[in-house]
Amino acid sequence: xxxxxxxxxxxxxxxxxxxxxxxxxxxxxxxxxxxxxxxxxxxxxxxxxxxxxxxxxxxxxxxxxxxxxxxxxxxxxxxxxxxxxxxxxxxxxxxxxxxxxxxxxxxxxxxxxxxxxxxxxxxxxxxxxxxxxxxxxxxxxxxxxxxxxxxxxxxxxxxxxxxxxxxxxxxxxxxxxxxxxxxxxxxxxxxxxxxxxxxxxxxxxxxxxxxxxxxxxxxxxxxxxxxxxxxxxxxxxxxxxxxxxxxxxxxxxxxxxxxxxxxxxxxxxxxxxxxxxxxxxxxxxxxxxxxxxxxxxxxxxxxxxxxxxxxxxxxxxxxxxxxxxxxxxxxxxxxxxxxxxxxxxxxxxxxxxxxxxxxxxxxxxxxxxxxxxxxxxxxxxxxxxxxxxxxxxxxxxxxxxxxxxxxxxxxxxxxxxxxxxxxxxxxxxxxxxxxxxxxxxxxxxxxxxxxxxxxxxxxxxxxxxxxxxxxxxxxxxxxxxxxxxxxxxxxxxxxxxxxxxxxxxxxxxxxxxxxxxxxx
Length: 520
Description:
The protein has helices at residues 2-21, 25-33, 39-46, 106-122, 141-157, 174-180, 203-206, 212-216, 218-223, 235-246, 287-294, 339-354, 372-377, 379-392, 407-412, 436-443, 445-450, 456-471, 475-479, 492-503, and strands at residues 53-55, 78-85, 88-95, 126-130, 163-167, 170-172, 184-188, 193-195, 230-232, 301-303, 311-318, 321-328, 359-365, 397-406, 422-425, 430-432, 485-486. The chain is an alpha/beta fold. It has three domains: 2-246, 2-enoyl-CoA Hydratase, Chain A, domain 1; 271-429 and 473-503, 2-enoyl-CoA Hydratase, Chain A, domain 1, CATH 3.90.226; 434-472, no CATH class. Strand 14 (397-406), helix 15 (407-412) and strand 15 form a beta-alpha-beta unit. Helix 4 runs parallel beside helix 5 (141-157), helix 5 packs parallel to helix 6 and helix 16 (436-443) crosses helix 18. It starts with a helix and ends in a 17-residue tail after the last helix. The mean pLDDT is 90.
């Protein structure tokens, strides 16, 4: 009996070693030589030392077609389990490129689906590391069935637990859809690629117009498609970025975000802000500097930095509490809202609302970007997404108007009328239907036309000055209660910290419904 037990233990150890080898030492070394890590290397980079508990290491595919009965690799090309990141428990998985090129067979997909389902049950975040060539053709429709199950689990988890995707190699087909369903998708600069259609099937690649990186590389997805929220220099940096984002997020949607102690006093004055906004309303400045001056320790983790950079979004803290920051960027397109900016901000607002993260909006917006491209592209529908997201959000909403807040863009940027909780402005703020020059050209068109030719410009300038005197300051809105206060710029941090402190207990009730119908 003892001998039999010893043999069983040896068999277990042998199988564990086979699972660790994946597609074999030769393939693993080839992966390392290319500058990438193996699945287990990556998990070791991400998790606290010795915290990883593997699940389903003995799972194998069930296909007998195409000679697959000769290739039963333990784990079926994905390493999955749970562990801790800075002491916080998470579920994670990493595709193994050494096994069938990381392609997703039926059991491979079911393993990931199982991990996601377990994460939802225990209310823990998920970090997935993607590196694989789409659905495994050898498995046929079984691969699609498993993938469909995985996609369903991801959608069910969305908004319940945070999901972060690290794309560290080429990811093709429906696997790319799965990776992009995450709340945050980080691509590796050198090897991270996402394609829905393989480059081998893309005419522009076949004809030599662009290469694979130009079709679906990290810089393309960070600047053009808006899929990558960050680009990582290497795999260690990708894990560091994921850990940093996770530090701002709660474990699940019923928990509050983690709070970090800070030595930065809530009453710190922001004297540099007194002179930051130029006196000329047409001159640009950097809204990121405004945010960094106000938030704890000047730390602002900006997301989607290279995409729709006329609006900024990201995470920061006030008195140690996580906040989601949304701000117009006056130095790009004068801070106008366009299609991409509206979508970028709306998605982030809904993410913050899902995970109980208060929203702080820094507003300097002259309007929606005009033009045929924007109108034909659907700026009406896409701009409505931003308005919808703000109106729908039930977390604390705070807005600081630094300069311009004109027209429909003013309404879309967390105005008081959309039930924003605390709206303040600097004395430089202008809340109006449009700028003085545009308003005068509309309202007093006939009066300017009747003026003698040599007095037309003088008449126009006089009317512009009168309009500015009536509407070119924040006090009209303040008189009507649409601003809660007009403050000195140096008090910005103090006022926002105090407001956020009292708003922590905010609870908003909405009449029951299945869900709103956001204009997608």
